[in-house]
Amino acid sequence: MYDEKGQRYLDCINNVAHVGHCHPDVVKAGAQQMELLNTNSRFLHDNLVLYAQRLQATLPDKLSVCYFVNSGSEANDLALRLALQYTGHKDIITLENAYHGHVSSLIDISPYKFHQLSDAEQNQFVHVAPSPDVYRGKYRADHPNPAKAYADEVKDIIDRVHEKGGKIAAFTAESLQSCGGQVIPPAGYFQQVAEHVRRAGGVFIADEVQVGFGRVGTHFWAFQLQGVDFVPDIVTMGKPIGNGHPMSCVVTTKEVAEAFALSGMEYFNTFGGNPVSCAIGLAVLDVIVKEDLQGNALRVGQYLTDLLEKQKEKHPLIGDIRGRGLFVGVELVKDRLKLTPATAEAQEVIYKLKEQYILLSADGPHRNVLKFKPPLCFTTEDADLVVEKIDHILTELEEALGLKLHNTLNAENDSIKRKLPAEENGHQYHSGLILSRGSSPGVPQQTKRHKR
């Protein structure tokens, strides 16, 4: 991307411009439809039906009803309404450090935002479960079964709610926590949580706003990383869906949708699913297929992770490398044994990179996790550049701090490096996407960059 003076920047953090900034196919689709017709969704238009069909084809059959809205926050707010209406219950379970949006109902379920409030100020129907973080969390990678241990924490919350006379409406979670520090839940965690929640009469909401649409490489949706035996009851999506155009969606089951319709309160959204938004959404799906961006996320994501793992062997400030596809976190620590957060150092890396026209951010509860979530046209050359710059910056920081990589630090956590499963190191992946009429297939090994 470029600033107003023509200075070129490398964007490593923009998960909104999913297929590349100002992608010509997306721009053209929106402009052509705007020239022809744009109207509110009381008027049925082919684009709405065609887009719903294309989107649903990427999901498990059970998820068959789409509600089109305009932002991730609006999608998550509607998901809560669906859950409350379907179950008739009030209590919501969310995850520590979670972020689901900026409207009042979502601030209530976003500890990332409300953690500074007193207990009296927090919504008494919202309950916070530990983040399933196997690096810094309550149950770590050396635990014999962290997935079960974290899921049992949810079960304990359900039991406490029942003891007080409450009933669970929903468990909601980002499929991979982003603001919480690029947290990858252990395999099997969602299945066991869903079992506990559904037994209590609740539903499972998977928030894909930040991580959907092929970013994880092996699958089109991040919740699919948990396995084919896990299907949420409600899925929300946003950010990348329109490549910068304001649109989002909630997809749910027929049963949940029917219960919502029976509420007697008609649901209508003026701009959700309008012809221009749907034309843009279709174009984004086409570009993902035509330029093999999901495959690119897999290949370049693995390349980036490998580069960063080599840096971990060299730099004591790097405590952990974790991620899937082009969703990668680098946690910086001052001490690998104590996991002392290197917050100031992470911010220094961000500032130094910006001075060299590379955009990266840091997040997590201690703001010490460097976040990679670039447009999916990110290349191996881009990865080489940013990792080279990080290498130089960390070297300078470590020299100033007097940090050296001792053998004891090397040993810490090296035995539990989280390598990707074998199929993720190859080019096997699942999308469910098909090209729309008039598009031509293509599987380029190196994708084009658009206005970076």
What would the keywords be for this entry?
single chain; 452 residues; alpha/beta; seven-stranded mixed β-sheet; five-stranded antiparallel β-sheet
Question: Could you explain how this protein is built, in words?
Answer:
With 452 residues, the protein is an alpha/beta fold. The chain is 37% helix and 14% strand. It contains 14 helices and 14 strands. The protein has a seven-stranded mixed β-sheet with strand order 2-8-7-6-5-3-4, sandwiched between helices. Strands 9, 10, 11, 13 and 14 form a five-stranded antiparallel β-sheet that branches. It has a two-stranded parallel sheet with strand order 1-12. A hairpin with a 2-residue loop joins strand 9 and strand 10. Helix 3 packs across helix 8 and helix 6 packs parallel to helix 7. The longest helix has 22 residues. The radius of gyration is 22 Å and the shape is globular.
Indicate the proportion of strand residues: 5-15%
Give the biggest beta sheet. Answer: 7 strands, mixed
The average pLDDT value, as a whole number, equals: 90
What structural class do helix, strand and pairing data support? alpha/beta
Q: What are the low-pLDDT stretches, counting only 5+ consecutive residues below 50?
A: 407-411, 413-427, 437-452
Main-sheet strand order equals: 2-8-7-6-5-3-4
